[in-house]
Amino acid sequence: RKEVEQDPGPFNVPEGATVAFNCTYSNSASQSFFWYRQDCRKEPKLLMSVYSSGNEDGRFTAQLNRASQYISLLIRDSKLSDSATYLCAVNIRDDKIIFGKGTRLHILP
Amino acid sequence: EPEVTQTPSHQVTQMGQEVILRCVPISNHLYFYWYRQILGQKVEFLVSFYNNEISEKSEIFDDQFSVERPDGSNFTLKIRSTKLEDSAMYFCASSALVAGGQRGTQYFGPGTRLTVL
Q1: I want to staple A23 with a disulfide (CB 3.0 to 4.6 A). Which of A71, B12, B54, B112 is the partner?
Q2: B35-88: per-residue pLDDT in tens?
Q3: Are A95 and B91 in contact (CB < 8 Å)?
């Protein structure tokens, strides 16, 4: 089983819609969880950390389910500028982040 | 806002040649990392570095790779004898020491695209 697994997409979503991505991780010792955004040929940029209680940042909501080893990201009122690849990432120890392959999102005008 | 910088943005080299990729981490950060991303694939961890030592490395980081912090600002990745399969985007990242002795968020540089011919 892959360490971090995501649906590669692409998700083609009309502007203004709500879209949700899921991610599963295999190592139950994972300590920290993140969503990064990566634009084409650019570096990953931290979108948000994911906490057990769930957290929200504007139009973005992240949830963590440790029992199911599952992380989600919800984007409300999607905008054209949200088009990107969304990377799920986990820290098993402090040293390294394990990334998923990413989910591609295209917001359609 | 402080950021991680990397040079060069693109490096083309012949197979078998040595390359050095350079990074300037965020100035008050203490933890440094290299990752790579082969085109179309996921971002993969290579190595982490703290207090002038490697603290963790992946299976990819074999004897052909080395890292160094030659002065107070630069953090370098050297590939001794490049192979075709080393062609990838190489990202440097850094993080701070935060409360509780934990490592903070990793911030990534813009990357160096390495092309091995």
Answers
A1: A71
A2: 999 999 999 999 999 989 999 999 999 999 999 998 878 999 999 999 999 999
A3: no
pLDDT number for residue A103: 96
CB A70 within 8 A of CB A22: yes
Q: How far is B68 from chain A (nearest CA, A)?
A: 17
pLDDT per residue as tens digits for the range A1-40? 678 999 999 999 999 999 999 999 998 888 889 999 999 9
* Amino acid symbol at A79: K
- Inter-chain touch B42–A99, beta carbons under 8 Å: yes
Contact B48/A99, CB-based, under 8 Å?
no
Assess contact for A36 and A45: CB atoms under 8 A: yes
Mean pLDDT of A28-53: 91
Among A43, A93, A100, select the one facing B42 at the smallest CB separation. A100
C-alpha span between A7 and A86 (Å, rounded): 10
Q: According to the model, what pLDDT value does residue A94 have?
A: 64
Question: Chain A residues with CB inside 8 Å of B111's CB?
Answer: 42-43
pLDDT of residue B97: 82
